[in-house]
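Retro notes (design track)

What went well: tokenization of the new backbones is finally stable.
What didn't: we kept losing track of which sequence belonged to which structure.
Fix going forward: every design gets posted as structure first, then sequence, in one message. First example under the new rule, 449 residues:
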């Protein structure tokens, strides 16, 4: 690893040499200057990590040098050194943007510690700048990430998006399967037509057929008028069938026919309606094994599996965590109307060390909590106490939302198990879901109630 460069400025040559030696022993590369004018010339050629400058120098003072540096790069840490114990100058320096202030004679270990902390701050600034630049580019691609697996995923999407080939997307819960489906739609010539999403595991079996294929008036009790199904509504666009593995067997037969014939037959009708159809199906199970086990039609699997896309879990693409987290933090700041809290090195360490069983969705919720002042990776009641910017009712509401989401995630969306864990009546539970905008389907596995 290349040593970080410190720009050292002092007109007292013995002090300059002693300080240079201290910083070199601390592992830094040092570029020394005898005055502020020389330092500015060096700054035009060298990009230092930290500037350490004496305050009282002939010609340009340390305070004047600070002002010029702040104008050029407000986030470059500047440490000011004085031998006069001038508290007023120290206060003014901090107010004007100095990173820190030390007095001569400065103990070597104290100076080295201050510079190390300033260097860490600079590393975070540089990392954030790089992430922001990548985010600006990534927004055009929709799928955010820079790992090889995500690059391959984007390349495959680009290759097949503008075809009518049906696509099967596999990924664990929370990996972003609908995001991939939307990326396919957005990159195709179908982008101006509807993108229709349907979660096969979130609807009662009794209404799946009507939802998919539509019905005529009087087709069944309660069918007062004709209704166009999701498949027909997606004509010219894309239909996204999430949790396809939970589609009832009888509907699987009809969906196979729809895929083969590119037409639908609404309930109660003898008419066949042709549809310009593009299907993107998503699953979190191995459909081939499910077919062999008799839980999913093998012919439907092979018909859907024209193009297969796999989304890696977040634990297998850890290099993408900072980039994704930055993206979600910016999004949360916009939604909640709050400024982004400054992330620390330890915060990123915790993010990188976590296993992320909930994948990208869990990371997004973590970013929301971070922006709201609830800390990182912490669903306990104490987390709510960290947000001094919120009123008590706001803290209570946020804590309640976090606890409900945590229990839903722990019980994989099971209402019965979550009600028992929370000790809530069913109506109260659903009222709270509505109040906090929580979707149980986000946490559910097929056939959970």
């Amino acid at each position: 690893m290349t040593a970080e460069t410190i720009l050292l400025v002092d007109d007292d040559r013995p002090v300059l040499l002693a300080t240079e030696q201290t910083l070199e022993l601390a592992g830094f590369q040092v570029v020394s200057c005898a005055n502020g004018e020389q330092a500015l010339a060096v700054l035009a050629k060298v990009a230092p990590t930290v500037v350490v400058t004496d305050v009282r120098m002939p010609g340009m003072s340390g305070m004047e040098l600070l002002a010029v540096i702040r104008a050029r790069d407000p986030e470059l840490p500047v440490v000011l050194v004085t031998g006069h114990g001038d508290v007023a100058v120290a206060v003014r320096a901090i107010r004007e943007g100095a990173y820190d202030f030390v007095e001569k004679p400065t103990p070597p270990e104290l100076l080295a510690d201050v510079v190390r902390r300033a260097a860490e701050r600079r590393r975070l600034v540089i990392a954030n700048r790089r992430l922001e630049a990548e985010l600006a580019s990534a927004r055009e691609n929709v799928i955010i990430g820079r790992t090889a697996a995500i690059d391959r995923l984007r390349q495959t999407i680009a290759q097949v998006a503008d075809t009518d080939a049906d696509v099967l997307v596999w990924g664990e819960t929370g990996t972003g399967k609908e995001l991939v489906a939307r990326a396919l739609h957005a990159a195709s010539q179908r982008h101006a037509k509807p993108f229709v999403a349907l979660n096969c595991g979130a609807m009662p079996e009794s209404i799946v057929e009507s939802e998919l294929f539509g019905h005529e008036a009087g087709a069944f009790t309660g069918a007062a008028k004709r209704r166009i199904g999701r498949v027909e509504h997606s004509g010219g666009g894309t239909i996204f069938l999430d949790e396809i593995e939970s589609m009832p067997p009888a509907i699987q037969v009809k969906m196979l026919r729809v895929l083969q014939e590119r037409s639908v037959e609404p309930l109660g009708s003898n008419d066949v309606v042709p549809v310009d159809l593009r299907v993107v199906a998503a699953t979190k199970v191995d459909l081939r094994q499910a077919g062999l086990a008799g839980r999913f039609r093998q012919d439907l699997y092979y018909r859907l599996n024209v193009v297969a896309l796999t989304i890696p879990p977040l634990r297998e693409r850890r290099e993408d965590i900072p980039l994704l987290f930055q993206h979600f933090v910016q999004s949360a700041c916009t939604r909640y109307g709050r400024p982004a809290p400054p992330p620390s090195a330890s915060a990123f360490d915790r993010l990188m060390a976590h296993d992320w069983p909930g994948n990208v969705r869990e990371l997004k919720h973590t970013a929301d909590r971070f922006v709201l002042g609830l800390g990182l990776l912490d669903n306990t009641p104490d987390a709510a106490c960290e947000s001094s910017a919120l009123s008590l009712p706001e803290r209570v509401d946020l804590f309640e939302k976090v606890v409900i989401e945590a229990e839903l995630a722990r019980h994989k969306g099971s209402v019965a198990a979550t009600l028992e864990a929370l000790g809530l009546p069913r109506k109260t539970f659903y009222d709270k879901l509505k109040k906090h905008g929580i979707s149980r389907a986000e946490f559910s596995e097929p056939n959970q109630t």
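Added context from the reviewer: Residues 379-390 have pLDDT under 50 and may be disordered.
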